[in-house]
What we know:
This protein is an alpha/beta fold. The protein has one domain (about 25-245): Rossmann fold, CATH 3.40.50. It has helices at about 55-70, 95-100, 105-120, 135-145, 185-195, 225-245, and strands at about 25, 30-35, 45-50, 70-75, 125-130, 150-155, 170-175, 200-205. An 8-stranded mixed beta sheet has the order 1-2-4-3-5-6-7-8, sandwiched between helices. Strand 5 (about 125-130), helix 4 (about 135-145) and strand 6 (about 150-155) form a beta-alpha-beta unit.
Amino acid sequence: MANESRPCPCDIGDRFDYGGRGQEVQVGHIKAYVCKPSASTDKAVIVIHDIFGWQLPNTRYIADMLTANGYIAICPDFFVGQEAWKPSNDWATFDDWVKTRDAGKIDKEVDVVLKYLKDQCGAKKIGIIGFCWGGAAVQHLMLKNPHLKTGVSLYGVIRRFEDKHSLLHPTFFIFGEKDDIIPLEQVTLLEQKLKQNCKVDYEVKIYPGQTHGFIHRKTEDINPQDKPYIEEGRKDMINWLHKYL
């Protein structure tokens, strides 16, 4: 379980020992990790990192998983050169730190990445996934960006966009039942608001017994009882992308 003093325990399970099979490239004014499948495709997925940044091996592992399922995957540095959060940082400073990294103010970077995917990679159908901070960013983009086809928000911090629910595109919301920073009452309220306001397809799914960060957790730390839900969540994510891209 997460330490209650941590407002965003994405590092539970620590990091994968994973190098990545893609490469780092410059995309306009930001850097990005890109991985492409061997067969050509016009489908791409933008991966939005959590507070631990675009270089976190866990996130690159998921990007490579998307590529193994036939997608161009790109994980840009949405902190635009600002330092990512470190587990050794003082959590008492977290609120001030995150105020300088607004998940609702990444539109300029997304436009640059979309142009790169279309011009340099031949992408025509583009979706988006994001974890925690990045999950909140997915919700923001699904509310306003007309160029994205679909999104998957993985344990996105609901309180950052809790009053906005008129999604433009099909969106899948993944939550853990035992997530210390996203109480189940917030998830229930999100479902109610979506039911009242949302005109497109959506799904909200809660995975039993799972804590924050469970989809991209270090494999060595997967408990036997958790493994089926982690695998199910990853499969659900891929299936949603397959359905709408």
